[in-house]
Amino acid sequence: MRSMRKTTAVAASAALISLVLAACGTGTAGGAEPSLRSHERVAVYTWWAAGVEKRGLDALVGVFEKQHPEIQFVNDGLMGGGGSSTSKEHLQSRLETQDPPDVFVAHAGAELQDYIKDKHIQDVSGLYQEFGLTEAFPKDLLDRLSTKDGKIYSIPSNIHRANLLWANPRVLEQNGIEPSAEYDSLDAFIADLEKLKNAGIKAPLSVGTTWPQVHLLETTLLADLGPEAYSGLWNGSTAWSDSRVTTALEHYGTLMSYTNPDRDELEWDAASAMVIGGESAFNIMGDWALAAYDTEDKAYGTDYRVVPAPGTSGTFDFLADSFTMSSGILDEDSAKAWLETVSSKEGQVAFNKIKGSIPARTDVDPGQFTEYQKTAIQSFGQDTIVSSVTHGAAVPISQLDAITAAVVAFNSGETDVAGFQAALGASAEG
């Protein structure tokens, strides 16, 4: 049960509050007390309930408490929600029953389309001017955050890179493979996977359960189509029937044949642990995986290597955790205060130092960050940027759900490449 948040309006009587709540329908399931907003508190909903994500959130809260000591932070997320998918379902039920948190985290980009359409979140474009973000954020990022009518509905706390190959140098050296090499093509990468398998490595490429398998598909499509045609899959300028898509899906099936048989039982971090422990040589995952290596005190460049995913050098596959402001909240001042901290230089530095991502702001000192993060800052500034499909930047949730279902069917043997390609094409048709 969530604790009741009392209003600061001294003139409001208990009877009047009851009438307002009854009219607004803000009661929660199971007889829980209603959630009231006030100037004195800000209710923030995230799926960051454990590990490095929770520590990053705690660091951000620490900055908020210094910048806005008059406002109390309330962690309004689903504790023990079992990951972002469960939390998103819980959040959706709250939005539909008019019990919104003041702000909630979501992936920047197309993932927000349904929230915008259903009027669950507000246009925060004015805050970009108020907080000086039009100068602090790069133009390319601002363009990706903006809707067709020029409005912006969220403020990013970070930038993640999705297209990364993580490698165990010791395993590679023991099997005659150069540990620092970048792969120009998937064919070259597959040749080394075959070499490792012949040497007795049962799962040269580790992967986790459903969404990491979609993530692997994403980087495979990017490798074989290139950034322009890859982006065309999501804006309609590249046909799913394109022969390059067929090649990518064939490559994807080959890559999956080198992965661990227990993949459907493993979370993404367990797949990272296989590389750390030497059970696998490679894992394709975003830079949030950095936390798994740091937790084990592994040294960058010595205990592990991280380079662009095979065939994607020169491309930055983008996603961002961002905060929205809900519609229908009783007071917006505390929500704006939280968004100010999220966008501030101090907030972005504190959060990203822990999270492994990089700030959205361009006016931070790269020297404050890890060696990997320095390379990511440089890459984001000079490489071709594309949007991640797996992580909400490229397509709305409904299309991602259809893509995910197609991946599950293919990896379980229910469909062949032709059927897989047809199902992916159908996902774009609604």
TrEMBL record:
Subcellular location field: Cell envelope
InterPro entries recorded: Bact_solute-bd_prot1, SBP
PROSITE patterns in the record: PROKAR_LIPOPROTEIN (PS51257)
UniProt KW keywords: Signal, Transport
Annotated Gene Ontology cellular component terms: cell envelope
Endpoints of the signal sequence: 1-22
Transport among keywords: yes
Keyword Transport annotated: yes
Matches recorded under Pfam families: SBP_bac_1
Domain of life: Bacteria
Predominant location category: other
Assigned protein family: Belongs to the bacterial solute-binding protein 1 family.
Task performed by this protein: Part of a binding-protein-dependent transport system for a sugar.
Protein name per UniProt: Probable sugar-binding periplasmic protein
Source organism per UniProt: Myceligenerans xiligouense
